[in-house]
Every structure is written in C-alpha cells, then in structure tokens.
Write a structure and sequence with these properties.
Layout lengths: L1 E3 L1 H4 L5 H13 L2 H4 L3 E3 L5 E4 L5 E3 L6 H10 L3 E6 L16 H11 L3 E5 L3 H8 L4 H22 L4 E5 L17 E3 L8 H9 L13 E3 L12 H13 L5 E2 L8 H7 L2 H7 L8 E6 L2 E7 L5 E7 L5 E6 L2 H4 L6 E4 L4 E5 L3 E6 L4 E7 L1
Helix pairs in contact: 2-4, 5-7, 6-7, 8-9, 9-10, 9-11
This protein binds alpha-D-galactopyranose.
Length: 363
C-alpha cells in the first residue's frame, strides 16, 4: 500500500510534491491505515555523466535527502525506470546501466522500483526482427538482469514489473523476482477504464499469493469524474482482487469522502487479508457481476457490482455456495458499516448505476 505520483502529477512531479504527499499521508491518517510507499514515477531522471552515473533532473535536486525526509516520516520511497534506453515519458532508462542504477537507488535508500518496459520493446523487435520467441526471451532476461542487480545491492527493494500483461507475465514474473506485476494497460480516471480493467482480471487469481501479486494498476480513487459510488466500486474490486493499493490522487485536495474510502478499515482488511488469496468472478448476469474472495479466518468477501447505466432493484441469488458460504451465515455490509443479520441465497439488492454491495460473510 502506498501512493504513486503518476496518475495525478504525470511528468510535472517535483521533489516538493513528493514531500507534501508524504506529509499528507501522515496527517490524513493514510499511513496509519497502512499506506507506506511514496513512489516517484517517471520524469525524475536527468542525464548520465561521463562515468555513466545517472543524475536526477532539476525538479529533484537531491534524492538522497528526499529519501531521508520520507523515511523520517515512517514511510518508504519508491522510484521508476525502464529496461529500455528511454522511459515511456522519454527520460533516461537503465539499458546497459542496470547495476550502476541499482547501486545508485540503494545508495539513496530507495525501497521500491517500478521497472517499465517502454522503449525496450524497440530493442526487442530490432534485435530479433521476426523471432517472437527470442523477443519474449529478451524481455524476461532484461527483467531478470535488474532482479539480479537489485539483489546484489543487498538492500531489500520491492520489485514491480510493468509490461502491461504482455506474454502472460503472471506465469513467469515470480521467477524473475517480481513482487508485483501489472496485468494490463494503463488505468484512466473514469469508470469505463476501472470496469474494463477489473473485469479483465477474471481467471488470474491462482497466480497471486503472499509476496507475489497481480497488479491491476494504481488507484484512480479521488481522480477525474469518478462519483462516490464509482470510487467505492473501484476500491471494492481492488480489495476482492487482493490488489496492491497505490493511491494516485491529488493529496492536497483530499476530501473527507475520499479519505474515508481510502482508509476504510473493513475494505482494507479484505484487501490485505493475510491468507493472500485473490478473489474471482463467480457469476455474471448482464451488467451485474458477483465476485468473491476467501479470507484467512474462514470469512468470505462477496461483492455484487452494478457495471450498468441503470439502477438495479430486485431479488438475486448471491450464489453463496460458489462463494464458499451458505445460507444462514451472518453478513456485514462494508460500505454501510453495519451488520445486516443472517442472509439467504435469495437477496433483495438495490444498486444505483455503478454502485457495489460489499459483504463480509461469516459462519
Ligand atoms: C507507462 C506506465 C504508467 C506510467 C507511465 C510513465 O505508461 O504504464 O503507469 O508509469 O508509463 O511514463
């Protein structure tokens, strides 16, 4: 759990923005809710000197000092690079300088690296023109190279792969040391994007577990034109998906409503459940989907999501058996923050457009 600069600041992010984010993560109660990583995404990079040592650009005068500041708040600092010669925003990448860069991050006190494919795609296609298999092998080797470089620094650094779900990354990412890997394309601050990504995660549950997670991308909660119901549905789905929670909103404009969603202890408990089993889709009927997730204490998280444009108001089957629960279990309505007594399979559900019901069921 943490926060990343990209979704709000994009390439404009500065040292001051990161310090301010760290301050607000503490003052808003986000740190105490579990948000610990403050991650600088793309656009911090400057030029390499004659020895090949990378320097940060003028927006980041001293990353070591920044890391010290972030650490002094009880938080961790993340950084970003690419295995290609350039990053996606056309800054300097790590190609040919992997160990040098890993050593630099470690010397600054970096705790997390997002390693984004970007221009390495060009390196792959140019080096192995029509040989797709060779290209994919090169990609894995590039990720393994940085894995080894990070290990060699001796500093524990969370390793986050970003290659947009290419080549069924979930099947091999743990072998190259990844702790998390993006499963698809970039998220945007609208519900269409959130819904499309969430629905695309069906079937990936078996690849995730403690220490190695599917990453459906950073949160857009609090960004764009997402409504209260949409922000909650976004969070509901990410919690069922056991997703890494990297907030991506403008913390200087944090509203009580958004803070409440990001720090809701019951939803975070589902997301961070120690069993570490990702949930999956159990039922679809048109725009209504049921997703469930088994939890460590034998409870089950069950989400009913209305992806449709219209309100939904009728009795539906909760598919309790498929969810791993049964009629007569007790239900706690997470967003309402209250118990709703025992449940039966047939349940009366009222959901507005893009609204979700998130239940925690216990025997
Ligand atoms: C890619 C990634 C994004 C972000 C940008 C930065 O698009 O998928 O998450 O890191 O690059 O340029």
């Amino acid at each position: 759990m943490g926060w990343n600069s990209w979704n709000w600041f994009g390439r404009k992010v500065t040292d001051a923005d990161i310090r301010q984010a760290a301050d607000i993560i503490v003052s808003s109660g986000m740190r105490d809710a579990g948000y610990r990583f403050v991650n600088i995404d793309d656009a911090w990079e400057g030029k390499r000197d004659e020895q090949g040592v990378l320097h940060s650009n003028e927006k980041f005068p001293d990353i070591k000092a920044l890391a010290d500041y972030v650490h002094s708040k009880g938080l961790k600092l993340g950084i970003y690079s690419s295995p290609g010669p350039q990053t996606c925003a056309k800054f300097e990448g790590s190609f040919g300088h992997e160990q040098q860069d890993a050593d630099l991050y470690a010397s600054w006190g970096i705790d997390f690296l997002k390693y984004d494919l970007c221009t390495f795609r060009t390196v792959m296609t140019q080096s192995a023109l029509n040989d797709k298999r060779k290209q994919l092998q090169m990609m894995r080797e590039a990720y393994e190279k940085m894995h080894q470089a990070l290990l060699k620094t001796g500093r524990p650094i969370v390793y986050s792969l970003c290659e947009y779900g290419y080549d069924s990354v979930w099947q091999w990412a743990p072998e190259v040391g990844a702790h998390l890997w993006r499963t698809g394309d970039d998220i945007n601050a609208n519900f269409k994007s959130v819904a499309q990504i969430a629905r695309g995660q069906a079937g990936l549950a078996k690849y995730a577990g403690p220490g190695h997670w599917n990453d459906p991308d950073m949160l857009e909660v609090g960004n764009g034109d997402l409504t209260l119901d949409e922000n909650r549905s976004h969070m509901t789905l990410w919690a069922i998906l056991a997703a890494p929670l990297l907030a991506g909103n403008n913390l200087t404009q944090l509203t009580p409503e958004v803070t409440a969603i990001l720090t809701n202890r019951d939803v975070l408990a589902i997301d961070q459940d120690p069993l570490g089993r990702q949930g999956d889709r159990i039922f679809v009927e048109g725009p209504i989907e049921l997703w469930s997730r088994p939890l460590a204490n034998g409870d089950v998280a069950l989400a009913v999501v209305n992806f449709g444009q219209d309100s939904f108001l009728r009795g539906i089957s909760l598919h309790l058996k498929e969810a791993g629960a049964a009629a007569g279990w007790k239900a706690y309505d997470v967003w309402a923050g209250k118990s709703i007594g025992t449940i039966d399979d047939l349940h009366q559900v009222t959901l507005k457009r893009h609204e979700s019901l998130l239940l925690r069921l216990s025997r």
